[in-house]
Amino acid sequence: MVSMFKVRRWAAAAATVVLSAFGIVAAGQVPASAAPNFQVPFQCGVTVTAATFSGHRPANAVDFQKSGITGMPVIASAPGTVTRVANEGSTSYGRWIEIDHGSGWRTRYAHLSTQEVRVGQSVSLGTQIGKAGATGGVTGPHLHYEQNLNGVSQRVVLHGVAVPYYGKTNFTSRNACGGGGGNPYTPQQVCGSAFSVIDSAALGDAGTTYLLYDGSSGRNCVTTLKATSVGSPSPVSAFLEVEGSARATDSGDYSYYAGPVTKEAASTCVKWGGSVGSRSYTSPFEHCG
Ligand SMILES: [Zn+2]
């Protein structure tokens, strides 16, 4: 392993020297590093068609197609931090999201019908970020997807398999199918479709606690989704405390999640959080609007 590492280091350094000699590497630019193990941005087991075609902009982007794709959950294809949650209206990307995965790598997800994360939010592999749709400049519903390195669109690789250019190729998602993920539930499925995720906190690799809000009813909802021992009963909890009233908690040995814990909290600060096993999170009083 050590010698392999040295060889790779040497190769990377040599590549940088060669590129520098041609003046290609811009000052301050980070040399290319191994891409994250990007996964299909749909839930485990879902089969989608990855379409690539000349004239696509950018040329290396992939359009994921599937009948009935509108409303299907779109999930992060690697862990990262949300950098853009934008809406171009009826042009271009329409509703789109960008995630920064570190080392210069970012992914983009466009034409979404809903956006369910906020800028600065950290997401795990498999975290639902929105739903597929047909917003922006499209002729039909699909998910436009990009893997970019230092702002330049790269040929897309999904769970280690290079997407063919140009053509249509079916991929079945392995995204968060097991190990660190595999929870078949989404926060909205637990709390109800009227709710949107407004905050979340990762509990290491053990799971994630989510805070959701329904603007029409003024209600908050908290749920904790397990990412370990998924499908087997183990300790998990979720709580919600509206400032000035008692904390409501749901805890027990559950197979998939704790909650939903819901309370009316319009114009009132809330403290929220939860736990999986020994990992826990407690927020300050926040989201007071
Ligand atoms: Zn596209």
TrEMBL record:
Transmembrane segments: none annotated. Residues 60-152 form the M23ase beta-sheet core domain. One of its GO terms (molecular function) is metalloendopeptidase activity. Residues 1-26 form the signal peptide. It comes from the Bacteria. Pfam families: Peptidase_M23. Keywords: Signal. This is Peptidase M23-like protein.
